[in-house]
Amino acid sequence: MSHEELVNMISERAGISKQTVRDILLAITDVWSQEILSQGELNVDNIGEFMVEHRPGRKGVNTETKEIFLIPPKDYLYFTPSRELIEWSNKSS
Amino acid sequence: MTRDELLKKCVDRGVADESSVGSVSHLFYVYLLSALQRGQRVEIPTFGTFGTRVVGVKRAKKMPFFDPDFELAEKVNERYRNLKYLVVGKYELVPAVEETEYKGRESPYDAAIDQLGKEMVIDTHHEISPEKYEELVQRLERPRPTKERRPMPKFNLKDEGVEVQVKETVPTPTPRLHETAAAGGGPGPLVQVLIAIVVLGLLTLGLHYFGVIRLWGPPAPPESTLAEPAPFEAPQEQQPPPVTEAPPPAAQVPTPVPVQPAPSTPVPVEKPKAAKPVGTGIYTVQVSSWVSSSKADQEAARLTEAGFAAFVEEGNVDGVQRHRVRVGRYDTRREAGAEALRLREMLENGAWVTRVGH
């Protein structure tokens, strides 16, 4: 489902213009991402938990040339789905 | 973050009123669930994509996942994005830290990043010696070796403008025979002799096999034994000539028909002593067998006196010439058997049915 389809469905169902729906959705996701960037974690009710985790740098070896190089450290965003989300995705329609 | 907090923050931004924001957020949640239930993906720009993927084999189930947008992932990783080098084991600046101590945004490298100005950050999870560290730095500063790309060789199919290099072949003088022998190139004299012996032996064996010469085995059987079964037909064929005198005039006529009986009549080795005329069947009754021909003749004479059509047949048993005394010739085995029964009553050694020439 693309973003445009989602906006159309929501606007039809709620009786709100598409532009407002788009703005509201953008605002919601922006609030979430701001929370993630500032706090490093975000727990949304009934959807799941977003978590920023750190992967330290490590030594890597090129297996072809046997050259040692360093894989840089990185911060990753992980998502843990809620129990409700897992149940719904496995529910037969 | 609870629903109320989210609504409050969104309304604070001045996008819309609380009711519309609440309905939109609720519908978004409902449609997200329905899309995941149908196995679809939900794309939200600048945030990420929700979807499901199958996890496990035996108890496989759909697991929801979230793939963050590129922008969001870059923002999350902003601190480490512009780092120049990240070297393992800079023990001087940052002490070794266990991996479990990393948590969220609180990283022990913040101070190091501030000190080095995002040029050189050392991420440490185990200590190394200073020599090793300098070696690593040098290795990192060294430019990466690029693979040389060789140009594809051009195939000149038409042979245009290419000088073909012809190799000058120097004709080597062929060595003479005695020279090769001296150099050890050819086979030595002993080997030559051996080869000659082997060849000769094979030749003789071949001649023996084809019957040209005879090396071993029993002596060649005399011609008489080869023409053994014939003599009994001979008397019948020999009898006609004196009576009819047909062959002489027939021989004069160059027709192939009368010529045929002449070669077909083999040399009669021994004439049968039996007075009674013998039949022409293949079955006969054998009474006895003798080495000496005289005894066999006596036996045959005795039988003919008794009234049997006895005759003497020669046979070769294991290289020994035998003279078999036989009685009569019959077309069927039954007739011969009846005759044998009659003989068995009279003779001590018995009598048995055989075939002529066996």
Shape of chain B: elongated
Number of helices of chain B: 16
- Main sheet makeup of chain B: 4 strands, antiparallel
Largest sheet: spatial strand order of chain B: 7-8-6-9
β content of chain B, as a range?
15-25%
Share of helical residues of chain A: 40-55%
Helix content of chain B: 40-55%
**Superfamily (CATH H level) name of the domain at 269-358 in chain B:** Sporulation related repeat
CATH class of the largest domain in chain A: Few Secondary Structures
State the main characteristics:
heterodimer, A: alpha+beta, HU Protein, Chain A, 2 domains, 3-stranded antiparallel sheet, two-stranded antiparallel sheet, 44% helix, B: 358 residues, alpha+beta, Alpha-Beta Plaits, 9 strands
Q: What is the secondary structure topology, with strand pairs?
A:
The complex is a heterodimer of chains A (about 90) and B (about 350).
Chain A: H1 3-14, H2 18-39, E1 41-44, E2 48-55, E3 58-62, E4 67-71, E5 74-81, H3 83-89
Antiparallel strand pairs in A: 1-2, 2-5, 3-4
Chain B: H1 3-12, H2 18-37, E1 42-44, E2 48-55, E3 61-68, H3 70-76, H4 78-81, E4 85-88, H5 110-116, E5 120-123, H6 130-141, H7 177-183, H8 189-209, H9 223-226, H10 234-238, H11 240-244, H12 247-252, H13 256-259, H14 261-264, E6 283-290, H15 293-306, E7 310-317, E8 320-330, H16 333-346, E9 352-355
Parallel strand pairs in B: 4-5
Antiparallel strand pairs in B: 1-2, 2-3, 6-8, 6-9, 7-8
